[in-house]
Amino acid sequence: MAKREYSKFQQGVIRRYYENREQIDEGKLSELVTSLYLAESQSAKDKLWERTESLLERLEVIPSRIEHVMSLRDAAVLAELVADLQKGLGRKPSG
User: How many degrees, rounded to 5, is the angle at CA 54 between CA 64 and CA 37?
Assistant: First the structure.
């Protein structure tokens, strides 16, 4: 497959997306909390929890916190974790 060439504008858009991916993912996680509260069917909830787990891993949340949230599958617990993430808490130490 040939390497795709992007215009300068497209390169800027892509670069900014990845620079802000953490904030984008935090926003998606907040939206998932709302969706989990509103979801009615178990299959819809299961799909939302799968997305939640992958986002938590991508955000490099401490594994024990991920396990705790996923074992309880409680939107209120997830909401607390989201609040901690927005405060800068609950992530693996960088470095």
Answer: 90
For the chain, the maximum distance between any two Cα atoms, rounded to a whole number of angstroms, is 47
- Please tell me the predicted confidence (pLDDT) of residue 90: 85
Instruction: Examine residue 4 and state whether it is found in any structural domain, yes or no.
Output: no
Q: What six digits make up the tokens of 76?
A: 């209120």
Which of 69, 67, 63 lies closest to 83, judged by CA?
A: 69
Q: How many domains does the chain have?
A: 1
Summarised one tens digit per residue, pLDDT across range 14-61 is: 999 999 999 999 999 999 999 999 999 999 999 999 999 999 999 999
**Domain range for 14:** 9-86
Cβ atoms 4, 50 nearer than 8 A: no
